[in-house]
Amino acid sequence: MQIRIEHRPSPLWLRTLIPAIAILSTFLLTSILALLVNVNPLEAGYYFVIKPLSGRTSALEVLVKMTPLALTGVAVAFAFAGGYFNIGAEGQLYAGATAATAAGLHLHGVTPWLALPIMLAAGFVAGMAWALVPALLKVRLGIDEVVTTLLLNYVAIFGVSALLNGPWRNPVSQWPQSPDIAATAIFPRLVPRSRLHFGFLVALAVLILFWFVMRWTAFGLRMRAVGLSATAADFAGIPVPRTLLTCALVSGGIAGLAGVSEIAGIHYHLIDAISPGYGYTGIIVATLGQLSAGGIALAAFFLALIDTGAQTVSRVLGVPVYLGDVIQATLLLTTLAALLLQRYRIRVLHATSRSAEGDA
Amino acid sequence: METRSYPYAIEMRGIVKRFGPTLAGDHVDLAVRKGDVHALLGENGAGKSTLMRILYGLYHADSGEILVDGRPAVIRSPKDAIAHGIGMVTQHFALASPLTVTENIILGRTPNFRIDMDAAHAQVQAAAGRYGLEINPRAVIGDLAVGQRQRVEILKALYREARVLILDEPTAVLTPQETHQLFTELRRLQQQGLSVIFISHKLHEVMAITNRITVLRHGRVAGNVETRGTDERALAQMMVGRVTRPAVKPPAVEEGDPMLRIADLHAADAKGVPALQGVNLTVRAGEIVGLAGVSGNGQSELAHILSGTGEAGRGAVRVGEKEITHADARAVMAAGVGRIPEDRHAGVVGDLSVEQNLVLEHLDDFRRGGMLDHKRIRSHARALIDAYQIKAAPGDRIRTLSGGNMQKVILARVLERAPAVIIVAQPTRGLDIGATEYVRRKLVEQRSRGAAILLISEDLDEIMELSDRIAVIYEGRIMGELTGAEATTERLGLLMSGVAHAALGAEA
Asked: How many CB atoms lie within 10 A of CB B71?
């Protein structure tokens, strides 16, 4: 008998099953970890994905956590769809957060109708600016954007740290955190007695806009053509460099909005741990969501659920909170594996069939 | 070469090979007599290459058996195949171009750590003499012409004691003169007892060089005949399964206006080496001008520039009165040029659908109120699928289409806009006979409509069948122009190998 792996084109129904397959295998794999610390995997699973949704407060908290993930998810997806591999959403988020803080500090007494758009615009522009140099290097000189955008993340993070330990150090507490932004620049709460804020609506709007651009605009189709085959797009008369540049900048801008949302919706001041890696998780979200708006919304929701659940699980079952991170990482790996393996199938050959290779 | 009483050098029995849902080999039998040149004839995709890859150990059959000299052979890799005396020369030569002929031939077969180069040269020289292959062992591969490189590949196989030589479409890269030379050499080798499996889809070559012919169609054996007992028509019918019809070209209308004018055009290839060195060419309305030439003589660069995807140097290209020398693809299309690219996979986005690919070049025409008009995109696709007999649904990813259908999509996209000038490169490369006939008929139709067509092709038969005038390109220059009536394979061949028009005239 012989086992052989063969190439085959993937049927469409399989693509839609991929998230389910990935989630199931993630559950099975992480069950091993749960068993190692003597926890019933089913019980852990309950606390991870069901419990958070059963109470009003924790369910709204899931949406709070989903907000930055949906934004960075769209940011990454927008770039990836155009074939621009922006790994720099994290740095662009920090740039957006910094600009929003800078704006918010000077918006005392300005009506929120003006203050909020200014905050959003500041963050968007800052995110674009942070994305500009790698994008130009890519388009003009062909320098790989994966490396440059990734490295600029560290520049942004340490830049913020320097800012907070220098000029922006809180004058009252002396902590490395900026003063609070103006009250009028703060995102309003959507639901009383919860942390759910206006940023969630921004995320929804961005998701809808993303869907609209991809489905209904000529630019969206051109962008996908560039992402799928730059040669063919060029042949069809699509301006490839300009399209890539647009993708990169819009992607950076959206990541900047995630920074604005965290400042104006959650913290009200800049801290150096403004993001626990939302920019990187955005890559997972975009990949899990297969670059579609609906998929990204679902993936962001699911990862937010796991994040929230991790707190509960650790409190109730005494499991380290890092199990949540392990699950997210495993989910990315199983999704990538499923995406790859859908193109292959396994065949078992039996020795009984007469074979030209004479194997037996 | 030892000849035992057993008559067959190679027997393949009941070979089955499946790729997903397609049967590339369906119980194929092939028996090659010792000392025969045996043709494996069939259209692209008939399963010729698959069968030979199985014989050479590159693929593994799902079932069936292989006998070498009457004994069952287990061939799991090319190494096993070589050990059984089987050699293969593919279209893409496996030669290291910075190394010499000798180095390439002894590569991987050096017994000691140190190499005695002089002895090796002598050995290779002796082998070349023994087999009647004219080669300088000290020549660097990169300096050799394609025909010579092929000779090195053949010598390499023989040096490894091949008694059966598989040649995969060996003439595809050769000029007619080089082909002639190859046939002479093959006949000599045949007399020394070598068996050759000659893969081809060119009927006249098969008739000229082989003793026996196995015809494959859709992975099955469609015929197995002695060459002397058959003719081209019968073979074509076996290949296609029906009677073939060549494109009928109506006589030329009166001379049209010059539509495409190329004047003293220069360009460099990707490495910066001059690829076009002063090309002059005019194509008039209502005529097809064929550009013949051996692959790599500047055709690709010319096609790219005319398509708006290349980088032109000095010189000028005009369409009507508009200059498009340095125009991008969009401007070239706006000037009225329709483009059918040599690599059709580079002309469509494989993961987009048929309907999307059909509108990709003119998206702005398919918008309503700033938004894409999906309804019209769909009906546009349906109409073209109908008109061009494309076997696909509008929503199918174009990657899943056969080469013929993919080419029809490109044709439809270009021709429905009735362009004044059509640049078409290698339009039927890799297509089956049915699709080839269709594409050629469409080009002739366009000519009757009054389009000026530049047909760039490495297929001489195609050029001669379709062209009103034929220009030959060699090392980035037009070597000469012949009218369709003047053109013969010999004359074109001389021009293609760089012999100037004057010499041709003197000889004719």
From this structure: 10
Residue A42 lies in a domain: no
Residues of B in contact with A356 (CB under 8 A): 15, 54, 60-66, 75
B50 at interface of A, judged by CB pairs closer than 8 A: no
Q: What is the pLDDT of residue B377?
A: 96
d(CA A258, CA A72): 6
Record: contact B360-A354, CB cut-off 8 A: no
Instruction: Among A194-203, B41-50, B128-137, B197-206, name the one with the lowest average pLDDT.
Output: B41-50
Q: Which of the four CATH numbers 3.40.50.300, 3.40.50.980, 3.40.50.720, 3.10.580.10 does domain B8-240 have?
A: 3.40.50.300
Note whether B410 and B426 are within 8 A (CB): no
Does residue A132 form part of some domain? Answer: yes
> In the CATH scheme, what is the code of domain B258-349+420-507?
3.40.50.300
Is residue B270 within 8 angstroms of chain A, CB to CB? no
Residue of A215, A216, A231 with shortest CB distance to B346: A231
Q: At what angle do helices A278-288 and A323-341 cross, to 10 degrees?
A: 40
Distance from CA of B378 to the nearest CA of A (A): 14
Q: Which tens digits make up the pLDDT trace of B316-346?
A: 999 999 999 999 999 999 999 999 999 888 8
At A359, the pLDDT band (50, 70, 90 cuts) reads very low
Contacts of A16 (CB under 8 A, 6+ apart): none
Average pLDDT across chain B, whole number? 88
Residue A178, classed as helix, strand or coil, is: coil
CA distances from B397 to A104, A134, B129, B391 (A): 49, 33, 54, 12
Minimal Cα distance from B365: which residue of A? A218
Please report residues of B whose CB lies closer than 8 A to that of A9.
Answer: 20, 400
Q: List CB contacts (< 8 A) between B371 and chain A.
A: 216-217
Which residue from B minimizes the CA distance to A345?
B20
Which class for B118: exposed (0-12), middle (13-18), buried (19 or more C-beta within 10 A)? exposed
Residue A349 pLDDT level (bands cut at 50, 70, 90): low
B364 near A CB under 8 A: yes
Q: How far apart are the first and last CA of chain A?
A: 7
> Could you tell me which chain A residue has the CA closest to the CA of B13?
A356
Beta bridge partners, B268, equal B274
Complete DSSP assignment for B87-115? EEE-SS----TTSBHHHHHHTT---SSS-
Cβ contact, residue pair B363, A222, below 8 Å: yes
Around Cβ B187, how many Cβ atoms within 10 Å? 13
Q: Which domain holds residue A161?
A: 50-318
Q: What are the structure tokens assigned to A303, written together?
A: 């990862």
**Alpha carbon of A248: minimum distance to chain B alpha carbons (Å):** 21
- Which residues on chain A are in Cβ contact (under 8 Å) with B61? 355-357
pLDDT in tens, B273-332: 889 999 999 999 999 999 998 878 899 999 999 999 999 999 999 999 999 999 999 999
B369 touching chain A per CB within 8 A: no
- What's the pLDDT tens digit per position in A212-251? 999 999 999 999 999 999 999 999 999 999 999 999 999 9
* Contact predicate B280/B263, CB 8 Å: yes
SS3 B251: coil
Q: For residues A200-220, give the mean pLDDT.
A: 96
